[in-house]
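Action item from last week, closing it out:
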Amino acid sequence: MSTLSSLLPEKQARQFQEDGYCIVDNLFSPQEIEEIEAYFENYKTQGYSTFEGQKIEDIDPKSRQLRAMFPHRHSEEALGWALNANVMAVLEDLFGQPPLLAQTMYYFKPPGACGQGMHQDDFYLLTHPHHCIAAWTAIDSADTENGCLYMVPGSQLGDMKCPAGATPENNFKAGVLSMAETTRKAIPAPVKRGQTVFFVGALIHGSSANRSATRSRRTFIGHYCDGVTDSIANFYHPVLNNKGISVTRIDVAAGGGPCGGGWQGAQH
């Protein structure tokens, strides 16, 4: 299945097809992980201190996600990490064609921070005709104590689920892993510092609250679509190729997703 055996072992490629996610080692060097960590610790105090319309010091992480949105639009460093050659190579293997960058995020998730309710990325990105894929790189090791991801293996093979009521209040609960409309069990996906989790946009996933008193759960994330994508929600434009050049042929997706509602991606 995999033509990049040194980057995407057969076991991980098979797990991605069956379960909707896999974990890959060593795509970033230890030095690069240190650079990402240092950069975003500094990011909190620099000109990019506004987080989704607020300053970082004004956000209560117990009730709201503490995250930098689209840092690659402000930073050549962040753009370079999002277009990391090893990450892009694994994505090309998973997509079967060259990937395109749609979004970056950095989650700080300090001790006591809330979790994120179960959701599917495709509900927000609205990539067409194929699913998006996330690349989620751990800056801190993550486990059930400090708020690791929870996955519902195989859920990517089912229908898209509409978050109940489609509001931020019930979509991003503080550590509550709501499993509305599915009987499959969510399981934790612990990771070590520097590992990258790849998961398809139809996979139901979320995270628990950070219950550690001392450890953060920091993460650098990219969302990607494939080379034949013809539309994506407005929030994710411009979409970039592997050279960081805007792909102008991609249309703005109409509506708010398969369940309707006019979300247009802006709440993910």
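Closing note: Residues 30-43 form the longest helix (14 residues).
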